[in-house]
């Protein structure tokens, strides 16, 4: 069973390519200090706006900082924000969805109504709203993106529970005297975990994209810490003279988001054989 | 159909009220004082207190709730910074946003549906791989980055289109020239969604019995695909078009910022930078109203494609 899915995933060339891209970004985040050719914050005033090549493979920005090193360090912010916001979102979303689905009644109606309303909002508008309320900074950014993801995760978890709750083995567990928390944890959660895991990959892509958007506006992690979004923000001023300042960090965003999206797509196909 | 529309519009009001309530609560529950946030940490206690009173923050919560709501029916409240009614700002910005989003949807439908058909009909061959790869790239690329790339290519290098701003509505050619690149930005993103959706829906329909029947009785492949399959495949496509239109509204925020278009998105970011909570609340409710409206239009458009749909 398990190996059949693994093989289905490996047969999917798009998914494997995506896994390679995503792994490259994660690796860059992990080993940035070891492989970056320069300190991402050191300003080389004799080499401002240097074109790509030589000691600075991707050039330098208007303060003479090495673009490649900044992109490598930027991966740390993207991956950190991505991982933790997806964790927060999955935790809260699963809690809301599982509770609503399991307990039912007016609680379910009320909770899912709020979820529906929040879900109809564009992800970015919601991200902006939460950042406005929470303020800027890495921790706030993680919470804001986690909150943005929560309704989507809640809806997924809720749907899964509604499908499961009429199942006989749940009734059997209840008859055997299991409490609601035990049933949720032991019987419901394991059944929805696979689907949540697949979606988490796609949410990771969304989280990285939203992070890039917010830091492009200037609402994310504040400078001088390099993030891909704020590198582009700073680079845009020099767009006509030195376009690479915006183009290279953007490529990094594209690789990261594309990688996770491709893995998610591939996992989904592998889990759902009828689409193959 | 008219009755259905009226009923849906009536249902929209409680939804918007809920949106307003959520936003109101989010802003109040949030740590920090909006007055302090607006004035900065170094403001004197008197100034903060004065602003708190002007913002109505000293009244009990339910009075604030009612007052703000009454203000919404009038002019969406007044901006904390400029004292201009938010409603007035929205009125000048909204046409630019609507124009942009609409153009994006149209481009997406015009480019996406044929591409989707092509990838489905040529499944697992070169056009399919190319179409699918491009669609994946299109839905992974952030709108602001795509906008920057288009500026680099078409405005800086080729000089075909202006870089930023929006032409006045009175000057049609200037307006369209300014619209071209932002609309293309949203259009490319929309195209990716529409391509994927059309492809998977058409592939599902092509598996149906009546498609086999059509082929078995010797209909030309073109007739089967375009006359029988496509129309049925388009129903879910339209619904996704509607859902994605909401996403597109979000991307329009970024597009407006990159191209400095005077739309809702720029108002919103401006309100955020100035910590203008009143304007921000109003704008979020406006976005909510837009989404509700788009959903209604989507539901109404089903009837155009599927004669079985009755609005009761």
Question: How would you describe the overall organization of this protein?
Answer:
The complex is a heterodimer of chains A (about 280) and B (about 300). Chain A is an all-alpha fold and about 280 residues long. Chain A contains ten helices and no strands. In chain A, helix 8 (about 180-215) packs parallel to helix 9 and helix 9 (about 230-235) packs antiparallel against helix 10. The longest helix of chain A has about 40 residues, at about 180-215. Chain A is elongated and about 75 Å long. The mean pLDDT of chain A is about 85. Chain B is globular, with a radius of gyration of 24 Å. The interface between A and B is large, with 43 and 50 residues.
Which properties best describe this structure?
heterodimer; A: 276 residues; mainly alpha; MetI-like fold; B: 312 residues; 2 domains; 12 helices
Topology:
The complex is a heterodimer of chains A (276) and B (312).
Chain A: H1 2-11, H2 13-35, H3 67-103, H4 105-120, H5 123-134, H6 138-165, H7 168-175, H8 180-217, H9 228-235, H10 244-271
Helix pairs in contact in A: 1-10, 2-3, 2-10, 3-4, 3-6, 3-8, 3-10, 4-6, 5-6, 6-8, 8-9, 8-10, 9-10
Chain B: H1 2-29, H2 34-39, H3 45-54, H4 61-74, H5 86-121, H6 126-140, H7 143-157, H8 172-205, H9 209-216, H10 221-258, H11 264-273, H12 277-305
Helix pairs in contact in B: 1-12, 5-6, 5-8, 5-10, 6-8, 7-8, 7-10, 8-10, 9-10, 10-11, 10-12, 11-12
């Amino acid at each position: 069973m398990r190996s059949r899915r693994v093989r289905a995933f490996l047969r999917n060339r798009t998914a494997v390519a995506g896994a390679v891209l995503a792994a490259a970004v994660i690796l860059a985040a992990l080993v940035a200090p070891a492989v970056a050719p320069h300190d991402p914050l050191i300003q080389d005033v004799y080499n401002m706006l240097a074109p790509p090549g030589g000691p600075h493979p991707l050039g330098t920005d208007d303060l003479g900082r090495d673009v490649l090193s900044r992109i490598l360090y930027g991966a740390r912010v993207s991956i950190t924000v991505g991982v933790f916001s997806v964790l927060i979102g999955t935790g809260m979303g699963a809690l809301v969805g599982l509770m609503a689905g399991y307990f039912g009644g007016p609680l379910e109606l009320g909770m899912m109504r709020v979820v529906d309303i929040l879900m109809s909002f564009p992800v970015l508008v919601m991200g902006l709203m939460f950042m406005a309320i929470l303020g800027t900074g890495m921790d706030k950014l993680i919470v804001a993106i986690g909150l943005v993801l929560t309704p989507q995760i809640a809806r997924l978890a809720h749907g899964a529970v509604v499908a499961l709750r009429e199942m006989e083995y749940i009734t059997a567990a209840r008859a055997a005297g299991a409490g609601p928390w035990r049933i949720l944890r032991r019987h419901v959660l394991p059944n929805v975990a696979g689907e949540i895991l697949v979606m988490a990959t796609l949410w990771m892509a969304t989280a990285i994209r939203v992070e890039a958007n917010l830091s492009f506006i200037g609402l994310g992690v504040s400078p001088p810490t390099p993030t891909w979004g704020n590198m582009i923000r700073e680079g845009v001023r020099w767009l006509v003279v030195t376009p690479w300042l915006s183009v290279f960090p953007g490529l990094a965003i594209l690789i990261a988001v594309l990688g996770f999206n491709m893995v998610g797509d591939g996992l989904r196909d592998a889990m759902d054989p009828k689409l193959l | 159909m008219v009755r259905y529309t009226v009923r849906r519009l009536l249902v929209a009001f409680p939804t918007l009220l809920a949106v307003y309530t959520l936003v109101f609560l989010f802003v109040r529950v949030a740590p920090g004082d909006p007055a302090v946030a607006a004035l900065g940490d170094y403001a004197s206690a008197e100034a903060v207190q004065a602003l708190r009173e002007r913002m109505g923050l000293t009244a009990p919560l339910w009075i604030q709730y009612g007052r703000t709501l009454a203000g919404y029916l009038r002019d969406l409240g007044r901006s904390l910074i400029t004292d201009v009614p938010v409603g007035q700002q929205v009125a000048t910005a909204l046409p630019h946003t609507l124009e942009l989003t609409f153009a994006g949807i149209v481009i997406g439908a015009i480019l996406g549906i044929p591409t989707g058909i092509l990838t489905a009909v040529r499944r697992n061959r070169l056009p399919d791989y190319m179409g699918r790869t491009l669609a994946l790239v299109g839905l992974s690329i952030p709108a602001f980055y795509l906008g920057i790339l288009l500026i680099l290519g078409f405005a800086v290098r080729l000089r075909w289109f202006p870089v930023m701003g929006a032409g006045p509505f009175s000057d049609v050619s200037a307006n369209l020239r300014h619209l071209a690149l932002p609309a293309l930005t949203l259009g490319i993103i929309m195209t990716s969604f529409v391509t994927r959706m059309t492809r998977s829906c058409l592939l599902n329909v092509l598996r149906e019995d009546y498609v086999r029947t059509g082929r078995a009785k010797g209909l030309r492949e073109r007739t089967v695909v375009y006359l029988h399959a496509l129309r049925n495949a388009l129903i879910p496509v339209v619904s996704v078009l509607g859902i994605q239109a909401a996403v597109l509204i979000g991307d329009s925020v970024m597009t407006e910022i990159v191209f400095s278009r005077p739309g809702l998105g720029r108002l919103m970011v401006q309100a955020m930078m100035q910590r203008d909570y009143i304007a921000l609340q109003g704008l979020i409710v406006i976005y909510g109203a837009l989404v509700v409206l788009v959903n209604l239009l989507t539901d109404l458009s089903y009837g155009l494609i599927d004669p079985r749909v009755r609005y009761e």
